[in-house]
Amino acid sequence: MIELSTNLLYMVPALVFAGLLVGLLAGTFGVGGGGIIVPVLYECFRLMGVADEVRMPLCVGTSLAIIIPTSIRSARGHLARGAVDMTILRAWVAPLLAGVLIGSLSARFAPPWVFKLVFVSVSAVLAIKLLAGRESWRLGTSLPGRVGTTAYGMLVGVISSMMGTGGGGPSTMVLTLYGVPIHRAVATSAGVGTIVALPGAVGYMIAGWPDLDLLPPLSLGYVSVLAFALVVPTTLLAAPFGVRLAHALTRRQLEVAFAVFLLVVGARFLVSLILEV
């Protein structure tokens, strides 16, 4: 394992602050907060000297672990308001789990740039769709039949496990493209996070076990226990405020805010990809 460095002093306050943002975002947008915590973790692990070949999987796996309690807290808040579509959620359970398994297994073999490319591409597509704000941008008035719904659920699971998110972004896009109102889509996406995060984190723990010599202390495969312990308490503290904020915003305000958030976090990895070329 690599040794802890003095840069840990910078890592602690950065992760505590990131936890507050993650909790707020989880409640507001129905996302697990991976969009903000993955870039923060990436910089923290870079300062700690974590090897390039394991840094991005470590960020993604740790993010998924952090999302577990955050998504549960956020989903419970939306569920209490009756905003979660349980019919969609039940139909997606099995395909989401299958997609997460595929994405987690890929962590063992995919190069770092693949994770970054997925992160940037999905963030950009989501942001453009939301900023356009056109009701005509729909694929239908309801989700397709069993095969189509299953395929979408699996796709959300794969993308989420490779982005280190709870599935809020991809699932919100799919649901709104099929006529689900943004508030209901966001609330349902919070429920998706509870299904995606736990098996995703376990998958990354298993995938990273052969690389323990390259990982920082207190790591369970591609999951940093130290980062988890620093971020989770503040995410749980901030999540309820995010839920209240989401229901206070209008549909258009929520769409624009979500789009801006996605563009900011996607730009960070786009720059990184360009510099690597």
From TrEMBL:
Gene Ontology annotations for the cellular component aspect, listed alphabetically: plasma membrane
UniProt membrane topology term: Multi-pass membrane protein
Keywords: Cell membrane, Membrane, Transmembrane, Transmembrane helix
Keyword Transmembrane: yes
Recorded superkingdom: Bacteria
InterPro entries: TM_pro_TauE-like
Positions of transmembrane segments: 12-42, 54-75, 87-106, 152-178, 185-207, 219-242, 254-275
Pfam families for the chain: TauE
Coiled coil: none
Compartment list: Cell membrane; Membrane
The family this protein is said to belong to: Belongs to the 4-toluene sulfonate uptake permease (TSUP) (TC 2.A.102) family.
Full protein name: Probable membrane transporter protein
